[in-house]
Amino acid sequence: MPTTYRTIVHCLLLGTIIFLCYSNSLQSSFHFDDYPNIITNTNCHLKEITWENIQKTWQSVGPGEQKLSRPIPRLTLALNYYFSGLNTFSYHLTNIAIHCITACFLYLLFCQLLLNIPDIRLQNKALPDALDTALLAATLWAIHPIQVQAVTYIVQRMASMAAMFYIVGFYCYCRFRFSRQTSLRLLFTILALISWLLGIFSKENAVLLPLAILCFELVFFPLTRKRKLFTLFLCLLFIGVSLLTLLTMQQGELLDYFRSPYSYRTFTMEERLLTEPRIIVQYLRLLLLPVNTYLTHESDIIASTGLFSPVTTGFSMLLLTLLLFFSLWAKTRYKLLSFAILFFFINHLVESSFIALELYFEHRNYLPSMFLFLALSCLILQGRAFYIIHKRRFMQILVTLAILFLLIGEGATTWLRNEDWRNEQSLLEDAIAKAPENIRPKISMAVELMKIPEYDKAKEQLKLAEKLVKKFPDRYPANHIGLLYYNAAGLHFKLGNKDKAILLYDKSIKYSPYEKQSYANLGYLCYLKGDLNCAEKCYVSALQLGFEDARLYNMLARLYHKKGQYDEAQVTLEAGIAIENIRILSLNLIAIALDQYDIHRAKQLFYQLPANQNDPVYLLYKAILQQETQQEKTAEQIGQILFTQQRSLCEWIQEVKENNLAGVIYPDIHHIEPYIRKGYLAAIDLIENDLQKQKETINNCTDQEQEPKQTLPFNEVSPLSIKVSN
Questions:
Q1: Are residues 309 and 382 located together in one domain of the fold?
Q2: Do 571 and 539 reside in the same domain of the chain?
Q3: Distances (CA, A) of 88 to 31, 38, 477, 714
Q4: Do residue 580 and residue 620 come from a single domain?
Q5: In angstroms, rounded to a whole number, what is the distance separating the alpha carbons of residues 258 and 246?
Q6: Does any domain span residue 724?
Q7: Dihedral angle of Cα 8, 128, 327, 278, to the nearest 10 degrees
């Protein structure tokens, strides 16, 4: 079979296997970081394709707003939103397509290495067909269950796209390396550089590609004088582009980028460096033994504080040191295995070193693990070929069955792992079972239960998390403990226990003093309790922390109005309108103008508002600002709308007279109140008259014979009688 045809068939087969293993993830819900990066990220909500909107998608929301942040995957997420909104099907389909492309280019890269590097093939003449070996290696990598987090977790498209461009760049480099035509070498050089840059703009750890190429050159080729210069060039390129990437895609000073995140971690840089060897050993264990029992989104790994605290720290460091020395020793005899191990270590340098990221995530193995599967496939197929040559048929069948068992086992485990990612609750249940001493999944589960609502079960999860905090007070990050009390406060507010909620928000702020939402919520509760000074202090603190929300400005202005500080209220409302022109802010500006006896300005502001004849508050201000001859009709309309909306008239009038709500400011209604009551009663009379007519119709109906109505056969509904509504 021609090589090109076989390559196409192999790629199609590889894509089919991947799609089958991930087909049950297409309807999985959003999770965790999907919310800030997709659902609440307005920059991602692409509704019209213009250059300005496309540029906006490249930017993150939050502290890094207006700063370039992984623009390539963010643009693809925005395009998913453009075509399907928040329906997760297209997002997952895109993620699977990216994974298929990565696997196919990995297969092509493996083919290049096996066909063009003599040392790999000559080490064992029994090595089987290169294309079959590459296919097995790429398949084992692609359907390994440790990759589920990078594929099914939508926002980790950033990791999978970076790996895709990285491996495309590596493939193009190999094509340059093994080509003899000058034009082809130039073409693949340009494509390799473009792919590398696209990888960096997908996720920063793609910057490691030059180091991987350098390692590739040193392992597989002799170090001539010309290659020494090339080695120096690769090192300088890596350093230069790394610094440029940090300056382009990060906020603040360079040193602050590395130091500041440790301020809210429970571990120091030294402790993280001590802990990562244990975690890398755990990654290797999962790669070798991918049992669903050990795969989890969360972990309860704690940072190491010394070489033997815990005792596995020293042993993990020793194991990795031996593995590293083995890879250097094996450079002359087992080149592929040596490169696979070094490639694994190189591509963990960003996420498993001194940078203050969270300690553990499975998706960090998506790229580093690739060449380990090529080494494994070569080993397995060499063993099978050995038994074929020596005509040991039983062992040949046994190895073949082992390969099938491995493929089926990996695929089945991946399918089962995707079932855990089906929705937020199923994933959290899995995390709680596998990481029982981690408080974060318990907190997240409580939030999910509050949505149902299952308040008792939510409280139980929060209490379990609090017990762990009391048992291990120094184990958990302060912001996680703050999150625990923040959600506990929200739960007690929903249960109507405002005093308890205030105490818990205070506790949340103690642990997480820069959480602006805590201040905003606490301010709202203080306002409801009548403590205006506390409310003002909290609102102002939230704004100072960067809580740019028009509703918060409105609540602060409402507070100023209640205190009689009309000028401050007006300035605050105008600042809120500059952020987002919410209708209630304009209505409250009218209320302030009326309280300042500026009728002309109040009317001017009112007539700038779009009319809404179904909004009682809008109609209320309309009636107040109208001539007396027109007020009666508008006030009656308010009463009729209140009845239509099934609102209690007495409760509504009491609410307006008390005028204590944290949002809307009501005007004085004493002179139009009778007309509102009149309109409400008129609506009741209208209903009563209609009911009376129906009653009379029933009493007067007779049993007169009527002509039978023509009907469609089989009780069909005539298409002409169907009303289609949008």
A1: yes
A2: no
A3: 11, 11, 31, 41
A4: no
A5: 10
A6: no
A7: 60
